[in-house]
Write a structure and sequence with these properties.
seven-stranded mixed beta sheet, 12% strand, tetrahydrofolylpolyglutamate synthase activity, Folylpolyglutamate_synth, Protein-Tyrosine Phosphatase, Chain A, 2 domains, UDP-N-acetylmuramoyl-L-alanine:D-glutamate ligase
């Protein structure tokens, strides 16, 4: 059995799906950076054998491996989420108490917000800056299969030992604040998703400092105005295409959402923004906020970037072109390269070769199953629509069949009634849809509270039932198969894809399987593809 890739970077966990661009000219020699010290906190204040890790709730270990770090992460994320993660003020206090102000002064930052394509835009920006000769850090979220994907140096993951070393060095500093700052004690002792994001953001700053990063590209977590990442003194900011997302936090109208995203603008700092063709009313919100804070705003209209011929990108979808143009303008701004210059060969090569984990990924199962997976983490109405069009185009081209056998594997944590509307123009192209569930660390962690686990299982089951009901109400003509539990092996998916004798499908046609709706679902299936490729079998 084997899994072959039709697109670079599909299963390239070693590079987080982001291959390095062509080797840039050698940068000036990097001098060793002094280690960050914690102000007013003893360096080994809580690092002794037997000391307790407040954030993790377990004793610290003498030997701190990458596996140990992942166990700490399990416990940090094994609690209920914060519904209103106002991380800005708390993060500022952490930065002050950790003594991280010198990091923010030394590193140059590019800040990226938006609804669609902010991860892709961040990756393009980082790749271009690396090609210009900078040492570049890239902070994104979420990760697909490996926590290290969130903190990338020059397009590559740190090795596990180095990451674990930095992780525990920082964890000691972070937890030491519990004993010296009562205001931060609550956040350290009560982990949640919002507090975990802040922890990983601060850890990334620490790693970037230790690695001598010159420019860091930082993707916003949620929104922008009160996001933890908004504590950075950005040199350039980017706002990608806007849409409806995280409405329980950002607001119920597109104008409210745009206002939250616009919150990353800063006085005197240029902001490059998508033209907002999906929601033109957001342009006025961005323009008003730019005037209010004194930020030069450059909207990517047709004549802003006078480069008519654009290279074919490895990432599919029309929005990828827009994302790459925003990235080029931002990267050139940092590098002091005039935006009016034509693309040089290095820039073209970066744009043509850059891939991003979870976007436009393709993998084929070659052991006779004759099934090709197309994976994209699109999860908003607009991004799902764009990704679906990419899937239809590419699957038809790959099979040379205008009507191949197409199956949708889908999961959403958002309002299914709203999100499922994205498939309305395309539903006739699918023969069936599989409503999936996602694996959740809170359901498998040995430290998880049984009541919390049961509640999460019930919540996921209810979401699956609701999504299934909405699909069947909206698209009765397409067979809908709900999954009672997350996939445990690739064979679980293959069994659903292979048509039953009663199905009205042409089993002789290769199956084209489109996975979308959630980066978590894509990450789960990427993991299963790796296990399958390595010869792993479904447990009996």
């Amino acid at each position: 059995m084997s899994v072959s890739t039709l697109h670079p970077g599909v299963l390239a966990a070693g590079s987080a799906g982001r291959p390095s661009p062509p080797p840039p000219p050698p940068p000036p020699p990097q001098h060793a950076r002094p280690r960050v010290v914690v102000h007013n906190v003893g360096e080994d204040g809580c690092a002794g054998e037997g000391a307790t890790s407040a954030a993790a709730g377990v004793p610290k270990r003498r030997h701190r491996s990458f596996k140990d770090a992942m166990e700490v992460v399990e416990r940090m994320t094994g609690r209920r989420p914060n519904r209103c993660p106002d991380g800005f003020e708390t993060t500022k206090r952490f930065i002050d108490r950790l003594g991280f102000a010198p990091i923010l002064e030394r590193i140059r930052f590019v800040h990226v917000a938006g609804t669609k394509g902010k991860g892709t835009t961040s990756a393009y920006t980082a790749a271009l800056l690396q090609a210009y000769g900078f040492k570049v850090g890239l902070f994104t979220s979420p990760h697909l299969t490996d926590l290290r994907e969130r903190t990338v140096i020059d397009g590559r993951l740190l090795d596990e030992n180095t990451y674990a070393q930095y992780f525990f060095e920082f964890l000691d500093k972070y937890e030491a604040l519990q004993y010296s700052d009562s205001q931060l004690d609550r956040d350290i002792a009560s982990p949640s998703r919002a507090n975990f994001f802040r922890f990983i953001f601060l850890l990334s700053l620490y790693i970037f400092e230790q690695e001598g990063v010159e420019v860091a590209v930082m993707e916003v977590g949620i929104g922008g105005r009160i996001d933890s990442t908004n504590t950075i003194p950005s040199e350039v900011s980017i706002i990608t295409s806007l849409g409806y997302d995280h409405m329980e936090i950002l607001g119920n109208t597109i104008q409210e959402i745009a206002s939250e995203k616009a919150g990353i603008m800063k006085s005197g700092v240029v902001c490059f923004a998508a033209p907002q063709t999906d929601h033109p009313e957001t342009r006025l919100v961005l323009e008003k906020h730019a005037r209010k804070v004194g930020a030069p705003l450059v909207l990517l209209d047709q004549n802003v970037l006078p480069i008519r011929s654009w290279p074919k990108l490895a990432i599919g979808g029309v929005h990828a072109i827009e994302d790459s143009k925003l990235a080029l303008m931002a990267a050139r701004c940092v590098a002091s390269i005039p935006p009016i210059l034509p693309l040089d060969e290095v820039e073209k090569s970066v744009l043509q070769s850059m891939t991003y984990a979870g976007r436009s990924q393709i993998a084929t199962v070659d052991d006779g199953a004759n099934i090709t997976f197309y994976l994209d983490g699109a999860h908003t109405v607009e991004s799902i629509s764009s990704a679906t069009q990419w899937f239809l185009d590419v699957s038809a081209a790959n099979t040379r069949d205008p009507a191949p056998r197409r199956v949708l594997v889908f999961y959403t944590s958002r309002d299914p009634k709203r999100v499922l509307k994205a498939f309305m123009p395309y539903v006739s192209h699918f023969c069936k849809v599989v409503i999936a569930q996602v694996a959740n660390p809170r359901m498998t962690s040995h430290s998880a509270d049984p009541g919390d686990v049961e509640g999460k299982i019930s919540e996921l089951r209810e979401r699956m039932v609701t999504t299934t009901q909405h699909w069947r109400n909206m698209y009765r003509e397409v067979t809908c198969l709900p999954c009672a539990r997350p996939f445990s092996a690739l064979e679980d998916i293959l069994d659903l894809v292979v048509p039953a004798a009663s199905d009205n499908e042409d089993a002789s046609k290769p199956a084209q399987v489109f996975v979308c709706g959630s980066f978590f679902l894509v990450g789960d299936i990427v993991k299963l593809l790796k296990v399958y490729e390595a010869g792993g079998r479904r447990p009996e």
